[in-house]
Amino acid sequence: MLRLGALLAAAALAVPAARAAVIEGQVFDDAVRLGGAQLRLNGLGLRAVAVLKGYAAGLYLTQPARTPEQALAAPGPKRLQMRMLVDVPTEEFVKAIDKGIRRNTAAAERPRLAERVAQFDAAVQAVGKVRKGDVINLDYLPGDGMTMTVNGVRRGQAIAGEDFYAAVLRIFIGRRPVDEELKAGLLGWQAR
């Protein structure tokens, strides 16, 4: 009986425990599967203005990235997950997307993205109000493009182009991100 107990204890140690990272009470898995690939949590951050905390976010990549360039160049699927901490009217969400893309995309690139930005804006508007507790995934799959899910339900069609996903990701980790501390967290600059 002692031997069986020792074997069970050894087996339990051999199986890695499912781990998670937590920020503002929001739990992010350390790894997710997307498009047949294993993605690791690169980092987490919090979007906040003064005392108002808007959302917690996690960036999932196939390999670690500590700079925006490394994150954008990471091969394979990518996921940006947002966990809403407040209700947000869709008009505000759309304005933030458009402003973030404008601030972080070269003027010469914007015309190539305009139709796809409008497609994304329409998908966000179709969601209606984004509510506290909602989980939004912005996923990129090579060959398919970016998809958005809200609480596990796909919203809108895939939006083609790695360039479009890079424009969206730069809202969070670009030269002029929506929040410098959020950027730092997503790139793993802060301990979790």
Description:
This protein has 192 residues and is of the alpha+beta class. It has a single domain, classed as Chalcone isomerase, CATH 3.50.70.10. The chain contains 6 helices and 9 strands; from the N terminus they run αβββββαβααβββαα. The strands form 2 sheets. Strands 3-4-5-6-7-8-9 form a 7-stranded antiparallel beta sheet. A two-stranded antiparallel sheet has the order 1-2. The chain is globular and about 40 Å long.
Please name the defining characteristics of this protein.
single chain; 192 residues; alpha+beta; Chalcone isomerase; 7-stranded antiparallel sheet; 6 helices; 9 strands; 37% helix; 32% strand
Shape: globular
CATH structural fold name: Chalcone isomerase
Instruction: Name the beta content range.
Output: 25-35%
Radius of gyration: 18 Å
Into how many domains do the coordinates divide? 1
How much helix is in the residues? 25-40%
Class by alpha and beta content: alpha+beta
N-end to C-end Cα span:
41 Å
- H/E topology pattern: HEEEEEHEHHEEEHH
- Average pLDDT level: 89
Uncertain ranges:
1-18
Instruction: Please name the CATH architecture.
Output: 3-Layer(bba) Sandwich
The counted number of beta strands is 9
Number of helices: 6
CATH class wording: Alpha Beta
Give the biggest beta sheet.
7 strands, antiparallel
Strand arrangement within the widest β-sheet reads 3-4-5-6-7-8-9
